[in-house]
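Encode chain A's predicted structure.
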Amino acid sequence: MFVVLLRFSDNKAAAGQHMTGHQEWIQRGLEDGVFLLVGGIQPGLGGAVLAHNTSPEELSKRVDEDPFVAQDVVTAEIIEIAPGMADERLSFLL
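Encoded structure for chain A:
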């Protein structure tokens, strides 16, 4: 599983121009079963995605397709997590 951190760059002001494409990118990730959770990094620092069911290479390609990443609105960091234990509600991640 992966955590993708999308931190605003100096080009944060351009977010509004690319918001529709960014939201469509999020929706595709959810519909594809790759994104489990998407939310904001508080206070207003960017966003985060919990992803699974993908490879590091496939996720990197997907992240590069985010209009926010492509237009340098955010910088992306992908962190891979090897789950060892989980609450039973998240046992599908093991």
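The two ends are 9 Å apart (CA to CA).
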